[in-house]
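Narrative summary of target 7.
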Amino acid sequence: MAKITLIEAVTMALAHEMERDDSVTILGEDVGVNGGVFRATAGLQDRFGSERVMDTPLAESMIAGLSVGMAAMGMKPVAEIQFMGFIYPTVDQLINHAGRLRHRTRGRMSCPMVLRAPFGGGIHAPEHHSESTEALFAHMPGIRVVIPSSPARAYGLLLAAIRDPDPVVFLEPKRIYRLQKQEVADDGKALPLDVCYTLREGEDVTLVTWGAMIFETLKAAEHLSKEGIDCEVIDVATVSPIDMETILESVEKTGRLVIVHEAARSCGVGAEIAASVAGKGLYDLEAPIERVTGYDTVMPLFRMEYQYLPSVQRIVDAAKRTVED
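Modeled conformation, tokenized:
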């Protein structure tokens, strides 16, 4: 079993599904000849041909609209948007068509498309290349939003997303594309969507996060363990719909909750999790819920991006405040 990176796991999942299912097609800017800006589709056009791995014009609305039409006609398009900052022209197609097709046709049609995009900061990128606006898509009815945080979950969750009969926005945390390697078998086994993954068991504080922030959160949990604070770490993975049952069960055990995300604080997915826990698990809480997030500003350029991103120390401090309250 080979050890591969997250980006290599994405490539492996795409190749597996294209081999297994002739209806799976890839489209996007530079995905064919160049293999994508991060090389997620490297070698796939040579293997499957230009009719199944298609380079498109620089027109994100067209990419999304074409994907909706292809999906409605029984294909399974996997469209790539080069960076999340370029994804906003797709919103019209996603809200008005992809997310509504099943409802509009009373179940006669579905829209089995996947829209992939690298997201998040931490790679010294220019403006429009470091957004974390997953909450925008989580607010869209009929759209799943999935965010992997390891090679194994990238492989399994992408397989599940492609096989899903409804539209999925699949956001890949580019800061960790090549951060770690993990043994991943190319066995075609999908992981379940709409499920949180408990990465570390603990008794004192529940730390909830997703995407690249998994790494800072696990480091914070390790640091806190040396001070006698036992943290449970949960990877949300699917931020819409959220598996609140797993989070609530953890909070019932620990009595404390810290939510970590690099997106802006206001109206973020973390606020939804906090509201749900306050509504359904209030009597289990022994301290106020803490959120460690980005700020309500545009993501800064590279000199200040690590002042914007939640740090291990900020997570540690928030967890300690819940224990001290």
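The chain has a mean pLDDT of 97.
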